[in-house]
């Protein structure tokens, strides 16, 4: 396993210390972490197990499989999980009986939650907000991985003029993009926390297919290859003078960047070009506004004002009943992290939060236009981690 990169003990220790500080602030004596991505964040390993974190002292990663691999990957003490029926007794013997236990109730199956509660005979509290807010603020190490992902995405963008041609299908284009990224280390999986939300490369779709609504909680759906996977690239052929939506990401050491660009074979109608320019103007405006202390909601509201002034509110982030009600979302180990730029989110931006901002317009029967960059919050505003040209890619 020498060829695999290991996250430094210093990085993991800092994350655990921050979690323990929040547990003490919320008067929660201990947390039980079970979700894959959260396990990876706090241990450096994604092996099958349970992480027990007391409010002070050393945590333990109890692993079912593979104990051998977890011991190599993790910076946390690893022990075999053993029989679940005795797990509660082992916890109490080592750490004492917690009167309250923090669990990730947004993703933990109900039956498991009940089982853990019964094993430890304790009160349960949801620590989802604690974990998600902590993970929203990125370390220098995390920002470096996202920057490396941005370089790979830009390499794909530069290849597109040579790849795109009339008559090729959306899925053929998506496959070219996937292959290029895959052989350079992309895991080809965009992890999502949202229930029943799935995504691999992203949305590669064109014309009317891109504007086809679907269950995915975003401004563009894509026809998909089958009703069993009704989103993203389809067998539709690329045609002249229609927008080709290229909303995709790649992953480096677990961390992803999310980015959208538009291509066209020929030229776009003037009103679609105008809508695209409004998208760019929204990015310029929120780049200046997005400083620490500014509420997540206010960036969304400011974008709505620009959209209304342009007379494009009917097409913003979808169409009709299928409009998405947000402007952007956090990005990191998952593609739907905090912060969420939407109405009702009064939380304040913090320095080093990472946000994908994606103002898009959906025109039924014609296509989707818009742009998306991933940003990091700094004291003077948003700084783009995306490095690709924002010009429409003309074939």
Structural summary, described in words:
The protein is α+β, with helices and mostly antiparallel strands. The chain is globular and about 70 Å long. The two termini are 44 Å apart. The chain has helices spanning 9-25, 36-43, 67-73, 87-95, 110-120, 128-136, 140-163, 170-182, 207-210, 270-289, 296-309; strands at 30-33, 48-54, 60-65, 77-80, 100-103, 123-126, 202-206, 244-252, 255-264, 328-330, 337-341, 354-357, 360-363, 367-370, 373-378, 381-384, 393-394. It has eleven helices and 17 strands. The model has no long low-confidence stretch (mean pLDDT 96). The protein folds into two domains: 9-135, Creatine Amidinohydrolase, Chain A, domain 1 (3-Layer(aba) Sandwich); 137-394, Creatinase/methionine aminopeptidase superfamily (Creatine Amidinohydrolase). It has a six-stranded mixed beta sheet with strand order 4-3-2-1-5-6. Strands 11-10-12-15-16 form a five-stranded antiparallel beta sheet.
